[in-house]
Amino acid sequence: MKIDFARLNHVLIPKTKEERDRWRSSRFGRVASRVGGIWWSLTEEGRMLAILALVVGAFGVDVRHTSVYVLFSLLAGIIIGSLAASRFLRIDHVHVAASAPRRVTVGEEVSFTVACKRVRGSDEEMPPLRVRGPFLPWDGVWTDTAQREVAPSEAGVAKAILKAKFVARGLHHLDPFTVSAVAPLGLACGPRLRTDATKVHVVPRIANVSRLPAVVATRHQPGGVALASKSGESMDLFGVRPYRPGDPVRDLHARSWARTGTPAVREYQQEYFTRVGVVLDTDVEDPDRLEAAIELAAGVIAHLSRGEALVDVIVVGDRVHEMLLGRSLGYLDQALELLATVERGPKLRAVDLLRRIDAHLAKLSTVFVITTAHDTERNLLVRSIENRGAVCSSITVDESLAKAIRKGEPVAW
Amino acid sequence: MVMRLFLRFAPPFAAGVMLALVIIGGPPPAAARVIGIACAIASLLAALVVQKPDLRAHATVALAVAAFIAAGQVHAGGRYALGATIFVGVCLACLRAPRTSGAPLPARARMRASIVLAAGSFVVGGLLVWQLPNAHAAMERRIARWLGAIDDEEITGFASNMRLGSTHGMLLSDRVVMRIEGNADEYLRGAVLDKYRMNEMSWTSSTDIPDVRVVTPAGMAPETATSKMVYARSARVSRGGEARWFLPVGACDLGTASGKVSLDQAGIVHPEPAIEPTTIWYRTSECARVPVKLAPPTDANLDVDVHFEAEITAIAAKWTAGARTDREKLEAIERELGRFRYSLDVRRNARIDPVVDFLTLHHEGHCEHFASAMAILARRAGIPTRVVTGYRGGDFNKLGGYTVVRERNAHAWVEAWVDGAWHAYDPTPPIDGMERESASGSAAVDVATYAIERVLNALSRITLLEWGLYLTSAVVVLYVIREITRRLAKRRARSRNVFGDFEAAHPAFDALADQLARAGHARRVSEPIESFARRLRAITAPWSKGAAEALEHYAALRYGNRGEAAEIVGELEKAAKGINVS
Predict the structure, then answer these.
(1) Considering CB atoms only, which of A45, A71, A81 is closest to B72?
(2) Taking CB atoms and an 8 Å limit, are A59 and B75 in contact across chains?
(3) The whole model's pTM is what?
């Protein structure tokens, strides 16, 4: 069994913002945050010096025979002096806001922009500010740790860009960014201003799917999603046929009438997207294989989004998600956000799953089943879907395919 | 560029220079030297090799600090303090360089923060440098006491028995024991010990001869005393039967708050058992009453432990060979001991008696060793002796005009019976710092401390009933003051604004009202703004409409919070300008 040491390292730290907020509002959290407040009031340099001061203090315990305590005294004095001085650096006249992209792919760098500007009407000068990102759990890391202080422009505006990387999918609800002025010598920060909390969806990487089996089921299956606002008024020309009483006069095709001598009218057909379902099997022990399967699912959906098919249903594990977006084409985003939160699911039971998706199968042309193994249950699932009239394309993510997907190699069927 | 390079290499350079200075001055232990040099080189390499500025600064500084720690493994004194100050500055600049934007703080904030930073650093750093040695000594003693190595009596060192070397902790402590106003004699006697057995000195005469405690009547008035001795509140003095005063030989005309003290046969002054000793005043000359005569020696003053009698006899014979009188013998012993080394870090062979060890092996020790050795050697030469413990010297506080006796002034010396009287002999070689003047800073602090202690001492004499009375009076006075202040404030507010706590009118409104008054249209007392505006509207003047509108808008803003304040103020100002006063 693979042990995720990064996650283990943070085992005691609450994962979600809600859990963290709950901890903070607890009695212990309140006490800890007061004590920790001193630590958070120090800048990175201040913290470094504080740690060094402790080390120096430990080596300077024998004040009778060594002089090291003098160095300790100086360091402690400067740190405490800086902490006291920082209390005078309030920046109430500054307004801060953080912005971040809504989505970012796993492992890719995401930039957070923190904008600081002087509050309207204030004539106080803005000091150089230090912007600090929130604490990131085990799966996130700030990539540019050595942020310079940001100096305000003449107009009283300062902007800092902080970059981070996330190594796990999911909705990341980040704590506020903080902005503060820095005391002389740069060891402590003044009272902090906080931005609003920010949210980032870390979505899976999209596998490079270059070709999929042709979607061959009925193109105009009943219940399809019409692109026209009103049935029968679509502009997709089907052909020309002889006039029948009752046909709208505006549909008369003058050239055909002239050529044949009998009145002819244009006939239109309604436009449809082919409706597709994607079933993702999450019953897998190996997290890498699961990740590859998720990336492949994202790749399949992305590939389908470029064609005329519409992903109508996504089944993840034993849960069925209807992607009812009407004529909107934003289902890829929705699907990615859905896939961002996928965890290892329960044991796959074909009968149970079929019962859940049965109602949707009649409307689907094709179903892509992404599995992680070959076994009776999975075969039964594929056969049962086919028996219900939909074309079922099964893709098994074995070790070699998983490797190819993780490497970003193009995959095709 | 040059500055950047300087900041990059300054920490290892500064640490290296300090290390070199320390090695030249008084070399630290070999391991510290090796580690120091290695860390300085590593710091230099980090400054050269590491590419990321932030990481480089942190690594360089951390390794340079390690080198600096190694350099501080000896008592390097002032140069280390100076070097540390420069080094810390350099490290701060190095750490800050990768982060700073270069833009300064706003002038006012910078000034305020800098002052607080400088003051805070100076006070905290100074306090730590000043008090850490004391805190260390106190902690060391506390741990030793906790481990059972010493007990309270041994800490004071001045009880009726004492283990040899037990004043060691006191000799390292700066804790104030007492302050002496007026004449301060050099030797202050606190305990007399006449028996030495198995590393322990004790007072036995009290068991052989009944203790003569003389209860003196109320002493003289404090004003006529030549000296006044006040125990510091921080002093750890013995209580109960072991409580004692530290007075010079021949102190007379003693006076205390209770009016009663007692003297034992060795001349040690004790307070009444139930009374906590705080202050005593006395004279050392022109005594109205003759001081109590000290008891003559007993057999205990010639007693030597049989376990080391042979070695001591041999040494005594060797050292006093050629001396004929007791005085000569004592001087000879004193002279011989003068060649021994005074040290607080005493090395000892645990299997040998400390006095024999001191005399035959290591030849180093502190006052207790010198005094015990002299006392025992003199006894073998046939002279009755005893060891006296107490305090010697003290720091003279120029500001306060008194002498501060600290625990480090604890001392032991010898009294020998020569020519029918006890004479003091001090075989301990001169010790640095035994007699000195307080530094100005610490003198000022001590004056303040002494003043506080006097107040506290006075307060501690107040009875519970008196406390209750004073507290009640204080509460009543505070209440009266508060009431008066409140009423005065109310009256002032009333005279300032007849409408009570309403906000004052906007200056632009006042300006317009003044302008209108000058034009002959003053607002009547108690006339609402709206009525005033209506009245103005009826006037046939080019400015009347504008002024009336401005006033109406102002009334709406003031009482209804409607409209934009800035616009209305502009309107008021415009209206005021438009009024033709001529």
Answers:
(1) A71
(2) no
(3) 0.56
